Amino acid sequence: MTYSFAASLRRQALTIGDRVAVRSGDATRTYAELHAASARVGQALIADGVLPGERVAYIGRNRVEYPEIMCGVSMARGAMVGVNWRLTVDEMAHVLSDSGPRVVITDAEFARVAEEACAAAGVERIVVIGADAEFGVQDSPVTDYASWMAVREAVDPGLEPQPDDIAILMYTSGTTGRPKGVVLPNSSIGANLALPTPWTWGPGSVVLVVSPVFHTAGTGWTYLGLDRGAEVVLVGDPTPAEILRVIPEHRVTHALLVPALIYMLLQSPALAGSDLSSLVMVVYGASPITTSVLERALGVFGCEFVQAYGMTETGGPITYLLPIDHLNGLGDPSLLRSAGRPIDGIDIGVFSPHATTPSGADRLRDGVVGEVWTRSKQNTPGYWRNEAATTDLTTPDGWLRTGDAGYFENGYLYLTDRINDMIISGGENVYPAEVENVLTNHPLVSEAAVVASPHPKWGETVKAFLVTKAGNDPEADAPELDADEVIAFCRERLAHYKCPTLIEVVEELPRNPAGKVLRRLLRHRPS
């Protein structure tokens, strides 16, 4: 049987319909209620002209409506598009223009930005959650979500999604600076769900989702929890205080957190007296964890820890660092720098960065750094309407180039750098080219190079090295560059997490003979 969000929910509604499927704030849905609401969404989408294969975009926080939209889109055989609500209007309009959704559903909180982006992208149908109470614009072309779905019968449309149907189109930035749509069909998600995990979920498990649902982590844990019959708790504003309130209130058993958030929880005044005894496991990703943070977290959280390594393009994790590895890592800190071992069913190799096919000569031995490649049925088949980028990403025989540099040692994968120079700040991916493009549009900036700089809270922050126009021409009469003004300039044009927090003016950027900027020299430049 083909996996789909629709098929999974239909099964759960029949077998455990009275159990809580999802909650967010004061709102809850049992599996039966979630199925009924999803059916109304599916019917409303079909009435709006959504045909099989057409896209439906969601712009909003983690909330109880998201799973019913996700499953409703599946019932209509549509493709869900996750849109980052932190994007500027121009950035959001690019995603909408590229994906071409028939319908956009948004929180009232982001309705203004969504309307502008939709207008720029030529999207005419906008449905707003909470439009009556919060949006309240007379003669607006938007429709209130509750009214939109309430007029439809809670009857499952009965369409059967196929293996090659796109379940999710998840946008992720690329080295060219423009977000690309990662295609995740039902077959990829079904393959991911069939792989073994270091945890066992079922009715009685309570899964905390704080990663935003426009990320593969947020959506992935949502559909994984629902497929296993667990209770999924979605947090829309994941402050440390809110997370520490939600865990004991709902007796959360499993939480997925980025190391930066774990650190923030340990520093929070709300930690004192918090009852975390329900926790069975904390899974973290995006970056390794330090020994000092792990030692304290093990004592405070009193549960097992697992690291998961993967990317949007791999359709889920490809390695796990297991609980026993974390305990052993207290005595051998080098183990904690590992991303873990490959999951059964996932093939991973380290190849020469110059390799074009996975020949035996290009596969590197233990201890030798190269590019990490992976092959499995859960990998994306490619990028949406971007053949050139897909060709760069994959090989004809199914290998996917991750862009990460690393090596194997005693069966463990160690990541040393990112070949594509990606920066990860608080779990968010930032690509230098996109930031540099904005910086060089500043009237006083001639050249720009962006690198990661260590940050105690976010893991990494964005640091920009700038050559001013006066720097290129010592006789030029140019005003002195103001770092705060440059940062403000970026914040008007980029999501805030992408913007530099550190600015350094240099006379010139280090380059190789071919003219490429040597970022490694900038990363190791004395502060």
Describe it:
The chain is α/β, with parallel strands linked by helices. Helix content is 32%, strand content 26%. The protein is built from 19 helices and 25 strands. A 13-stranded mixed β-sheet has the order 2-1-11-10-12-13-14-15-16-20-19-18-17. Helix 1 runs antiparallel to helix 2, helix 1 packs across helix 3 and helix 4 crosses helix 5 (111-121). The longest helix is centred in the N-terminal third of the chain and has 17 residues, at 31-47. It is globular and about 65 Å long. The chain starts with a helix and ends with a helix.
Summary tags:
about 525 residues, alpha/beta, 13-stranded mixed β-sheet, 7-stranded mixed β-sheet, 19 helices, about 25% strand, globular
Report the principal-axis shape.
Answer: globular
Helix and strand content put the structural class at alpha/beta
> Helix proportion of residues, in percent?
25-40%
Beta-strand content bin: 25-35%
Describe the sheet with the most strands.
Answer: 13 strands, mixed
Strand order of the largest sheet: 2-1-11-10-12-13-14-15-16-20-19-18-17
Rg from C-alpha positions?
Answer: 23 Å
